[in-house]
Structure formats: C-alpha cells, structure tokens
Structure prediction request, 160 residues.
Amino acid sequence: MNKVFLIGRLTRDPELRYTGSNTAVATFSLAVNRNFANQNGEREADFINIVVWRKQAENVKNFLTQGSQVAIDGRIQTRSYDDQNGQKRYVTEVVADNVEFLGSKNSSSNSNNMNSSAKNAEPTPYDFGDAPEPKGTDIDSNPFADFGSSIEISDDELPF
Prediction:
C-alpha cells in the first residue's frame, strides 16, 4: 500500500504549468514539522515536494500562497531523468490525490479549532512571511443567496 498523509505549510508559491495535452499540473514544497526535537532542543522540518494535477492544480495556484497550511493525502512516486550532462537523476515526490486548505499562517479562525496540546506546541523555526488569507473562504457569506427561491423539505415526503 502506498498512502501518504501530511500536514504542513507551503515554502513557496505553487507553480502551475500545462502539459502538451493541456492538463494542469502544479508543484510546490511543503514544510512538515517533525514530532521531536533534535539534540539541541530544536524542532526540525522535512521539505517535501508535492505534485497536484488537473482542476485541483488550478485551485492550488489560485488559492494558496507561501505559508498557507494544507493537509495532503496522496502517494509517493519516484521517477528518473537524464540531466544536461547525461547523468541519471532520481526525484521522489508526493502525488496529491486531495489537498485540503487549512488556512494561512496568520489565520486566527484555524487556531480556534486546535486542541490545547497543538496550541502549546513549539512554533516552526521557519519564517514563511505574511501570507494572505486564501481567497473565497468567507464562511459568513451565503453562497446560495442569489440562487433562486427557497424550497421546503420535510421528513413526511420521504418514502421510507
């Protein structure tokens, strides 16, 4: 079984490209904190390359920036290519099946949902800058406000 789950922050803005057949592909790097401190008492992070395809790639490019926090579920992939000098190079990356947008570095709404042990955890030693809040995440607005008239649904209409 090849399954990966990661939560981390983007170390750079996503890069979006299109294949020859016009399929969107986005790449970015994710900083994922380790669960332990090193011998000096410092927490370290791993920097993992992520690849996202199709519509999700376009969404990643449009709504995420450096410092945005995401949850990834996908698989590890290793590929190889020959560089300019004819040397074989290997690349290991995570191909994301799902990308969940968790918020920006300065998002206070996400800190309200964390449990107390996560709130007291050491902050990451990496500075991601002041990333803006992802666009289109206003939970107070009604996305169906201009969709038409309301409908009534009751349990009496169900056949079971």
Q: What stands out?
A: Confidence is low (pLDDT under 50) at residues 108-139. The chain has one domain: 4-140. Strands lie at 4-10, 15-18, 24-37, 43-53, 69-82, 88-103. Residues 4-140 form a domain with the OB fold (Dihydrolipoamide Acetyltransferase, E2P) fold (CATH 2.40.50.140).
